[in-house]
Amino acid sequence: MPTPAPSSTPSTAPSPPDAGRVAPALDTGRLDTGRRRRALGLGALALAATGLGAGLERVRAQEASAPPTVGTSSARLLALRLRPGQDLRRELLALVEREQLEAVAVVTCVGSLTKVTLRYADREEGTPLEGRFELVSLVGTLSRHGSHLHLSVSDGDGRTLGGHLLDGSAVYTTAEVVLAVLPDLSFRREPCAASGYRELVVRARDAAVDPSDAR
């Protein structure tokens, strides 16, 4: 039986589902409008940030040019000795809280420490130190509303380190402290736009009474 001749008609592959569809034209006008809106939004944010920055600079300039608030007071001196193992900062803050002291200045302090914790300039965290340290100086202000203390110590080779005193500074042999209590003043800590921190505000004692202070 003769074999049939192959067909001369070419076979066609099935068309994909999207064949024959025309791709939609890009709406360049809409895209341009979206870009313009985003650009305007970013521009508005930039202008707002610039305005806030300029306003902050004005506040800083005003605070920098304002004369300092000066308070005057009589003084009552307190003298105490801290013993080995006591924490220098914690003991002073506990004394201020216990006696409900509003304004205190550190007059002098001498002694020795082991386990010193300092926060150095422009650092966020404290640096713990261990060894035997001579207490070279302690300066600052104390109040039950907030305190600010700086400490300098020297090691066995005479190298001196200093910074913001933090908890974790234990007395080695002794710490002899003299404090000046200023009964006519109140030290407060309030936000300062110029520095970005809570800074000292000096007030007369009779003008600084809070409702929460009423007994």
- Which topology of the largest domain does CATH recognise? 60s Ribosomal Protein L30, Chain: A
CATH class of the largest domain: Alpha Beta
Helices and strands, in order, run as: HEHEEEEEEEEE
Shape estimate = extended
pLDDT averaged residue by residue? 83
Query: CATH superfamily assignment of the largest domain?
Result: Hypothetical protein, similar to alpha- acetolactate decarboxylase, domain 2
Number of domains: 2
Largest sheet: number of strands, sense, barrel closure: 8 strands, antiparallel
Unreliable spans are: none
- Strand arrangement in the largest pleated sheet: 1-8-2-5-6-7-3-4
Tally the beta strands: 10
Short synopsis of the structure:
This protein is 23% helix and 34% strand. It has 215 residues and is α+β, with helices and mostly antiparallel strands.
General description of the model:
- This protein has two domains: 29-66; 76-213, Hypothetical protein, similar to alpha- acetolactate decarboxylase, domain 2 (60s Ribosomal Protein L30, Chain: A, 2-Layer Sandwich), CATH 3.30.1330.
- It is 23% helix and 34% strand.
- The chain has two helices and ten strands, in the order H-E-H-E-E-E-E-E-E-E-E-E.
- It has an eight-stranded antiparallel sheet with strand order 1-8-2-5-6-7-3-4, with helices on one face.
- The chain is extended, with a radius of gyration of 36 Å.
